[in-house]
Design brief:
The structure holds two protein chains of two kinds. By secondary structure, chain A is mostly beta strands. Chain A is built from four helices and eleven strands, in the order H-E-E-E-E-E-H-E-E-E-E-E-E-H-H. By secondary structure, chain B is mostly beta strands. The chains are: A mainly beta, B mainly beta.
């Protein structure tokens, strides 16, 4: 491999949902955590199950399996905590995954116009062609937040 | 030479909240937002039927002085399993009387985290944010989040003329602050 080709390689985290594998840019992954209690409360946002508590932070749990594989995942091994961008802000979102995750280096192939919005690109690994996920398109938020009537109250009662 | 006084530890800012239950779901509200707590039975006879098909969560109103308060079913509002509702919170500076199942306890929160941006629908109006109490996450409701100004207009328009409304009795259980 030439130096030029090596420079094209990027780091990705491979995640498993049922029988399929997907990839997320490693720079968008904060950590991988064991399953913990999901706190559920009334809301109207599809895909969001509730929140988990992680080191004092409440992190929304977003089940993307149905969108990506067509069926919900019942078996759950880990939560992949990803960094989701909302315009100028970023927030953590927990993605339930069904298998171990793997860090790899691969070359990103750009998505084409015919790809789904949640496809950021493609990579080739161990004989498979794997979708690289665009979390901003896959998880709820952004444009819907802008339409929301309520201002965002960010009260930290604690100093 | 005078030595500076040792820095005083910053007192922890806290907020008193009431944990309450609707159809098994525990929610919290700032106690400062609750003007009165009344028994739902105690309201019987003093209510007026209100029927706005697009606002199913409101079936009744009570008259309080010059204005009417709309009794909002918490269960319908949050899309929970229907419940009878045993208590009513009269919410300060709103036109809402919230029907709930019961009070769990009063406690203090020291931190309120904004609702994560992934929650991007009506719940952004419903909640001020989330708090964690003994490692349990509880949503903190927004007292203004039960009725929009448009809903209040529609409900006002559906009310019978004021002179035909029964006069509501004086507050039953003012909440101590």
């Amino acid at each position: 491999m030439t130096v030029a080709a090596e420079l094209e390689l990027k780091s990705f985290v491979l995640l498993r949902l049922g029988e399929r594998r997907f990839a997320v840019a490693a720079e968008q992954i904060a950590e991988l955590v064991a399953p913990s209690r999901v706190f559920r409360f009334p809301h109207r946002t599809p895909k969001i199950e509730g929140v988990i508590l992680r080191r004092g932070r409440m992190i929304p749990v977003c089940d993307v399996a149905e969108t990506l594989t067509g069926k919900r995942v019942t078996e759950r091994r880990l939560y992949l905590i990803a960094v989701r961008r909302y315009d100028a802000n970023t927030e953590w979102v927990a993605l339930p995954v069904t298998g171990d995750c793997e860090l790899i280096n691969a070359e990103l192939m750009s998505a084409s116009a015919s790809d789904e919005p949640h496809v950021a690109g493609w990579l080739s690994h161990a004989g498979d062609v794997i979708e690289v996920l665009n979390l901003e398109a896959l998880t709820p938020g952004a444009e819907e937040v802008n339409r929301s009537a309520a201002p965002r109250e960010s009260v930290e009662v604690q100093p | 030479m005078r030595l500076g006084l040792p820095a005083k530890p910053t007192p922890l800012r806290t907020e008193q909240i009431i944990l309450f239950r609707i159809s098994g779901q525990v929610l919290a509200i700032s106690s400062a937002s609750v003007q009165e707590v009344r028994s739902a039975d105690g309201l019987a006879g003093g209510t007026t039927e209100v029927n706005v098909p697009s606002i199913r969560k409101v079936r009744e109103a009570i008259r309080r002085g010059e204005k009417s308060l709309f009794i909002v079913s918490g269960a319908v509002h949050f899309g929970l399993t229907a419940s009878q509702g045993a208590l009513v919170f009269v919410l300060r500076k709103t036109r809402t009387a919230l029907l709930i199942d019961g009070i769990e306890k009063m406690t203090t929160m020291t931190r309120l985290q904004a609702l994560p941006l992934s929650f991007c629908h009506e719940e952004r109006r419903w909640y001020r944010g989330l708090t964690a109490l003994d490692q349990v996450v509880v949503p903190v409701v927004h007292p203004d989040g039960f009725l929009t100004p448009e809903e209040v207009k529609l409900l006002d328009a559906a009310l019978p003329p004021p002179e035909s409304l029964p006069e509501q009795i004086s507050p039953e259980t003012p909440l101590s602050q």
